[in-house]
Write a structure and sequence with these properties.
Rossmann fold, alpha/beta, 5-stranded parallel beta sheet, about 15% strand, 2 domains, about 240 residues, 8 helices
Length: about 240
């Protein structure tokens, strides 16, 4: 299995330790590619919209964003990690995800995403882990990731070495449970939520295009992308 890991910080602390627990639970024989934020994507999205009009290769930060996206597309499993900062994901995680807005289902999603599994690993000293996981899950869902699992663990310490054995054991059990779900999947197809988002986006593209044509304007780039993929005519990016 090809695994791409996006670490939401360069700090190798509690969440990094949970990531190691998860990878250990996945076992040997996997190809793992890791990225660390902000090192591997140090720029903020400028909102230039080049990716929407010309593709992500036109992004002014393409030297960072394109290689990571290619790794994401090549992966069978995506792993995102983030400690909880002020009840949300790290700023560098948000800056990274902002670069791929054009890959949301409202625009030009990639067909391989609809067969991928993803795991979100989140830690916190106390509260806020649900919002942290949601910050990441929103992009995974709208990219079309078929199945996403979240592992959340309150540790009540800033350093892994100070975390109690009881909480370390709880984190290990949760990581092992998530790994078991990933490994048990035989044929990965999107869950109902993802299929529902896809159906809504399909309807939206048809409605928007109807308005555009009535106003005498050309088809939108997003409409043409969906049309070329056959998704407006009954085809689906999954079997």
């Amino acid at each position: 299995m090809n695994i791409t890991v996006i670490n939401g910080t360069e700090r190798r602390g509690c969440t990094f330790a949970m990531k190691n627990l998860f990878l250990a639970a996945m076992g040997e024989g996997h190809s793992v590619t890791e990225y660390f934020l902000s090192r591997d994507c140090p720029e903020f999205c400028t909102g230039c919209k080049a990716c929407f009009f010309s593709g992500i290769s036109a992004c002014p930060h393409a030297k960072y964003t394109v290689p990571v996206w290619e790794s994401i597309l090549a992966a069978d499993l995506l792993v995102f990690t983030s400690p909880t900062y002020v009840f949300h994901a790290t700023a560098q995680t948000k800056a990274f995800l902002d670069h791929y807005g054009s890959k949301w289902m409202a625009h030009s999603p990639e067909a391989p995403m609809f067969h991928k599994q993803a795991v979100i690993l989140v830690s916190a000293a106390g509260q806020g882990m649900g919002k942290t996981a949601k910050d990441i899950r929103d992009s995974l869902d709208f990219w079309g990731a078929a199945r996403t699992y979240a592992v959340k663990q309150a540790l009540f310490q800033a350093k892994w070495e100070d975390v109690s054995d009881k909480r370390k054991a709880a984190a290990k059990r949760k990581c092992e449970a998530a790994a078991a779900k990933v490994k048990s999947a035989k044929h990965v197809n999107p869950r109902l939520k993802i299929k529902g988002i896809f159906a809504m986006m399909k309807m939206a593209h048809k409605m928007i295009d109807k308005g555009e044509r009535k106003a005498g304007r050309e088809h939108t780039k997003d409409y043409l992308y969906w049309k070329e993929n056959g998704w407006l005519d009954g085809e689906k990016p999954w079997k």
